[in-house]
Amino acid sequence: MSVPSRHGRRLVLAALAVLILLLTGCSGGGESPSAEDTRAVETEPDALPVTIEHRFGSTTITDPPRRVVSVGLTDHDALLALGVTPVATTRWFGDYPGAIGPWAREALGDAPDPVVLHNQNGIQFERIAELEPDLILGLYSELSQADYDILSRIAPTIAPPPGQPDYGISWRELTTTVGKAIGKPAQAQRVVADVDRTLERLRDEHPEFEGATALVATLYEGYFLYGDDDPRSQLLTDLGFTLPQELDDLVGDQFGASISKEHADVLDADVVVWLTDDGDAELREDPLYSKLRPAKERREVLVEENSDFGAAFSQVSALSVPYVLEHLVPRLQAAVDGDPSTVAD
């Protein structure tokens, strides 16, 4: 299929915008409660109106939202942490009902599972319009200008922050931004502070983490390294680890990047956290990696992407971090000591 011309793309977007305007004028939320059945968020005094800056300008929210749709992959966790159930989430890892992982299920409580949006072929604009949202969150996402233009015709939309790469927003900023958008800024600050106290306690309990080098990687087109803008890497630095100095030069301004195996030396860190879907079979067959200290001394943490732990580790949020730490910290402790016989369960 040929790439459409700029004029042709404008016609497609215009036609889609007309369809969305027609849909928003019709009722029909499918499995989701109707607009009449949903209650407005109980906001904090003087929290609204609020204007939030993002990569495509700014969005002003004047009234307490009733129906929030999350097109960001982790934005719904921040909503749940603040006591708000989205009408729709976007599926990422796992096949969880409502796209709500086990780390967030308690926060959902007795509320019905949200509608799950699927983004394999792009954002489901028509489906979102049918849900009649009054706020759309796309903070942890790769929203383009064209995506934003269409979504903002449906409802006020918040795109990723300015000056940050796609999927580069930290769980802290995501939580506080969502808190501002729904009129709960003080509660959002408290949620972040609670998690930070847990991280501080773990740093105190594990002084061996302080200053040790660590990074997150996976085998994809060589070695795929997660940079310092990625929430997974930031979780390691939150625990006291230091990312390799050369990582920033290799990854650039993206959340992560593949590097050729000639740069394998960057993996010669005190700990490497590997995201994997086949255990360690492929790693053990890699002749370059097998010569490095992490392989020889088993300074590795293997995170199975298809497990609940793996899904939570990638879906870094105020709700998933405590869940992840229970599984991750013992493994980091076993890896950083350099003793191959030390293995965490």
Automatic annotation (TrEMBL):
Keyword Transport annotated: yes
Pfam families per the UniProt record, alphabetical: Peripla_BP_2 (PF01497)
InterPro entries per the UniProt record, alphabetical: ABC_transptr_periplasmic_BD, Bact_iron-sidero_bind
Gene3D superfamilies per the UniProt record, alphabetical: Nitrogenase molybdenum iron protein domain (3.40.50.1980)
Entries under CDD domains matching the protein: FhuD
Key words, A-Z: Signal, Transport
One record GO biological process: iron coordination entity transport
Boundaries of every Fe/B12 periplasmic-binding domain copy: 67-336
UniProt xrefs under SUPFAM superfamilies: Helical backbone' metal receptor
GO cellular component: outer membrane-bounded periplasmic space
Record's subcellular location: Cell envelope
Keyword Signal: yes
Domain of life of the organism encoding this protein: Bacteria
Protein family membership: Belongs to the bacterial solute-binding protein 8 family.
UniProt name for this protein: ABC-type Fe3+-hydroxamate transport system, periplasmic component
Organism: Saccharomonospora viridis (strain ATCC 15386 / DSM 43017 / JCM 3036 / CCUG 5913 / NBRC 12207 / NCIMB 9602 / P101) (Thermoactinomyces viridis)
